[in-house]
Amino acid sequence: MADPRAKGAELLTALAGADQAEEWDRTGAIPREVVEELSAAGVLCGQVPEEYGGLGLSALDNGLLTAHAGTLCASLRSLMTSQGIAAWTLERWGTAAQRERWLPRLTGGATAAVALSEEGAGSDLSAMRTRVEHEGGTVRLTGTKTWVTGAAYADLIVVFGRYGDGVAAVLVPTDAPGLTIDPVPDPLGCRAAGHSFVHLDGLELDEEVLLPGAGGPLGFVAQSALTYGRLSVAWGCLGMISSCLTAAARHAAVREQFGKPLAQHQLVAGRIGDMVAAEQVATRVCEHAARCWDQGSAELVTAALVAKHVTSTEAARVAASAVQVLGSAGARDGRPVARAYRDAKLMEIIEGTSELCRLELAGQALVRRS
Ligand SMILES: Cc1cc2nc3c(=O)[nH]c(=O)nc-3n(C[C@H](O)[C@H](O)[C@H](O)COP(=O)(O)OP(=O)(O)OC[C@H]3O[C@@H](n4cnc5c(N)ncnc54)[C@H](O)[C@@H]3O)c2cc1C
Predict the structure, then answer these.
(1) Closest CA to ligand 1's atom 17
(2) Cα 74 from Cα 161, distance rounded (Å)
(3) 95, 113, 107: which is closest to 49 by C-alpha?
């Protein structure tokens, strides 16, 4: 039987090669049929078990697939992250009926997004104001979510909101009356990732859309969603680092200044050496975190935080360095390193900013080591 990861990677390469990725970045959209084809092949959420039509990949294999997507197109990889978080949240926390209703769709052509952030609730999600009211078998949602990756393509949005003294996660189909989606205008990067505002104008749904645990603390469901997201972003950053390294090395080998290839100027070679080291470090932290996931290790939360923090910092640094190596040849839209430069910067903001990652890591160290 063909290796499902290899098949997934082949499909990604066929659908999202360099020319397509540049075109999507320019137009700000990935064709819907491409998204549907990747969903139907199970590629957007590779860890979903085979019983739900998924590829049933380990975290490590799914990570390698995600890194491959990251080498091609950060917007598409962002959709994989959102779809994966939604699918994992359903698999981990959903009822049997919720899993059976949605997981085969998410591996059968449908797409999903996850909405936590609001205008006044970014790093501080406890400031969330979206309300989830539950009365007489009906759930009512009111509020506005911001920067929801993939919402422009989504059939389902997992919406988090206030529920009594705690938080609830709600499975909201995007065709529900009272839900509207507006694009975030002119994003710096990941321009085809469908970032959107999601307005919930008192929309009413049957209570079966509530994930179990409603009214519990925010950390309950959100932590496992963020851990999946951090690991996925980390693998995507590894992909960006690899593609920037390749572009810089290829350019430096052939472009001549002062009578010899750039690569023979030591200040340029030094940049490429640093990129090799960054790729190695990123690979190791991603592999470690994925193994923690696959082995059910208690170290997973920390390992995913470290992986996301290290790889996003390195991806932003490597992409900037790759633009520098290419000089004016990398300084225009339509050049992969220019796209990576814009895309990579955003990776230091999502799934917990670099500052919040550092604070959380420091908090863990202070508990364990002081
Ligand atoms: C490309 C992209 C995709 C996204 N996708 C999604 C999505 O799919 N779903 C979703 O719900 N949200 C999404 N977001 C939102 C994202 O989660 C938030 O942008 C992020 O949590 C930061 O919040 P903020 O932008 O409001 O920044 P703020 O919280 O206002 O922070 C601004 C700056 O202040 C720093 N800061 C804040 N608090 C502290 C502190 N206590 N100590 C030190 N520094 C601090 C931050 O690190 C940052 O540098 C996305 C954002 C982007 C850019």
Answers:
(1) 350
(2) 28
(3) 107
Q: Which protein residue's CA is at the shortest distance from atom 7 of ligand 1?
A: 148
Q: Which of 75, 117, 196 to mutate to test the pocket of ligand 1 (most atoms within 8 A of CB)?
A: 117
Say how many Å lie between the CA of residue 353 and the centre of ligand 1: 6
pLDDT in tens, 158-201: 999 999 999 999 999 999 999 999 999 999 999 999 999 999 99
Tokens found for residue 165: 């003294």
**284-338 pLDDT tens trace:** 999 999 999 999 999 999 999 999 999 999 999 999 999 999 999 999 988 999 9
Strand ranges, E, within 154-264: 156-163, 166-173, 179-183, 196-206, 256-257, 260-261
Q: Are 312 and 354 in contact (CB under 8 A)?
A: yes
Contacts of 294 (CB under 8 A, 6+ apart): 58, 59, 60
Distance from the alpha carbon of residue 216 to the mean position of ligand 1, in angstroms: 23
Which region, left, alpha or beta, applies to residue 170 given φ > 0 means left and ψ of -120 to 50 means alpha? beta
Q: Which of 85, 147, 343 maximizes ligand 1 atoms within 8 Å of its Cβ, making it the mutation to test the pocket? A: 147
